């Protein structure tokens, strides 16, 4: 048997589930799932699809109407010019990323990954035979990749730059100038850029979201990954998208034809319901999550006498937690019944990630349990 490392977030959620099964009340800040009822537009689309009483295969690249709606969603927000041929429907953003690495990497190719990073990137790169190269970022620079650091890490073997904007776990959000400069440097170094933008609609406080799709001059080497999971609170439907050059999309479609066969037909109907009312659905999710974020930080700062600042985007707080984050998270789970993900899983020791996407009472009671049980330990 080959050995694979399970995802740390999945592992922590599974631990939390196990304790829940034993009848223990667990406050789950580990899973990055926006816990929200599906918007009525999604449910209406699903009910209509169920009336056909059918459950066919969908085309491997996705239903044409969904691909068109998804490209329209991008083009309206970013003045991009994606067409059907540039758009692939995947089983979550995760499979889009997996397929992209499989298609783009040859053995030994290096992938630059700003750290802290989403837990799955390095393993996905390994699975494709590549070499993940983390580039450390700093809270003093709002956890953003600097051009100087990027330059330092580019070598002959470097093939891909993975950019995650907005970032899981830090919420780091890049400006127009920063994205432009990064894309220009990547272009000069002949790198492909995979831009993971699965939190694009969850950007708060009037901050603009700048997509890599907004720069027509670099599109030959840019692949944007999107998802319904967070933006439309549809994580369990497993629908995501990849937008990029036609040849790359074709190749990823071929890979998909031999693996997942694409996202489930009913899920694609649900996603179509969301995208046809994208503005409404996204603002319903964003407004609820902004309220949860504000409540989370207000409660946290009061209970811990802290002055932590709300992140501008995404659904996470990357909190300083002291040395040996894995041990500390284990203690917190055992003592306070609060599930967190250790920073080490994101490539940064000394921190833990909270997801603030739970409902209000879970946030308040969970933080209280954490404060009661751990404040003096
Ligand atoms: N990319 C990032 C940064 C994420 O945080 C996640 C999920 O947590 C994904 C991609 C994959 O999301 P999904 O496969 O649910 O679309």
Task: Please explain how this structure is put together.
The protein is 42% helix and 14% strand. It is built from 12 helices and 12 strands. Strands 2-8-7-6-5-3-4 form a 7-stranded mixed β-sheet, sandwiched between helices. It has a 3-stranded antiparallel β-sheet with strand order 9-12-11. Strand 5, helix 7 and strand 6 form a beta-alpha-beta unit. Helix 10 packs parallel to helix 12. It is globular. The protein binds pyridoxal-5'-phosphate. The site of pyridoxal-5'-phosphate has 13 residues, from helix 4.
Looking at this protein, list some descriptive labels.
12 strands, alpha/beta, 14% strand, 3-stranded antiparallel β-sheet, 12 helices, 377 residues, binds pyridoxal-5'-phosphate, 42% helix, 7-stranded mixed β-sheet
Q: Largest beta sheet: what is the strand line-up?
A: 2-8-7-6-5-3-4
Note the main sheet. 7 strands, mixed
Q: How much strand content do the residues show?
A: 5-15%
> Helix-strand pattern, N to C?
HEHHEHEHEHEHEEEHHHEHEEEH
Mean pLDDT: 96
Helix segment tally = 12
Q: What percent of residues adopt helix (DSSP H or I)?
A: 40-55%
- Give the termini distance in whole angstroms: 41 Å
Evaluate the radius of gyration.
20 Å
Tell me, what's the shape?
globular
Main structural class: alpha/beta
Distinct ligands, ions and cofactors found in the model? pyridoxal-5'-phosphate
- How many E strands? 12
């Amino acid at each position: 048997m080959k050995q694979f490392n399970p995802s740390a977030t999945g592992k922590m959620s599974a631990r939390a589930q196990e304790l829940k099964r034993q009848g223990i009340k667990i406050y789950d800040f580990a899973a990055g799932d926006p816990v929200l009822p599906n918007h009525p537009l999604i449910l209406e689309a699903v009910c209509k699809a169920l009336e056909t009483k059918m459950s066919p295969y969908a085309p491997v690249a996705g239903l044409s109407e969904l691909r068109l709606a998804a490209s329209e969603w991008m083009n309206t927000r970013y003045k991009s010019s994606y067409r059907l041929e540039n758009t692939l429907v995947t089983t979550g953003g995760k499979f889009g990323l997996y397929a992209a690495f499989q298609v783009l990497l040859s053995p030994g190719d290096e992938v630059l990954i700003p750290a802290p990073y989403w837990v799955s990137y390095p393993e996905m790169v390994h699975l494709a035979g590549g070499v993940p190269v983390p580039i450390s970022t700093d809270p003093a620079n709002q956890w953003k990749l600097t051009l100087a650091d990027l330059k330092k890490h580019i070598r002959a073997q470097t093939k891909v730059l993975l950019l995650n904007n907005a970032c899981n776990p830090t919420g780091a959000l890049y400006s127009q100038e920063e994205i432009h400069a990064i894309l220009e440097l990547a272009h000069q170094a002949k790198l492909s850029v995979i831009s993971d933008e699965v939190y694009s609609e969850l950007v708060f406080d009037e901050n603009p979201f700048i997509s890599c799709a907004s720069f027509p001059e670099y599109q030959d080497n840019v692949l944007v990954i999107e998802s319904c999971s967070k933006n439309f609170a549809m994580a369990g439907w497993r629908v995501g998208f990849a937008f990029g050059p036609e040849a790359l999309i074709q190749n990823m479609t071929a890979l998909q034809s031999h693996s997942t066969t694409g996202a489930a037909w009913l899920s694609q109907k649900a996603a179509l319901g969301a995208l046809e009312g994208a503005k409404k659905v996204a603002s319903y999710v964003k407004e609820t999550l902004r309220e949860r974020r504000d409540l989370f930080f207000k409660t946290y700062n009061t209970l811990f006498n802290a002055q932590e600042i709300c992140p501008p985007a995404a659904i996470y707080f990357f909190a300083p937690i002291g040395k040996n984050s894995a041990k500390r998270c284990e203690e917190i789970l055992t003592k306070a019944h609060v599930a967190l993900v250790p920073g080490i899983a994101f490539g940064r020791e000394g921190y833990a990630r909270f997801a603030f996407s739970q409902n209000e009472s879970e946030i308040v009671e969970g933080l209280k349990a954490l404060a009661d049980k751990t404040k003096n330990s």
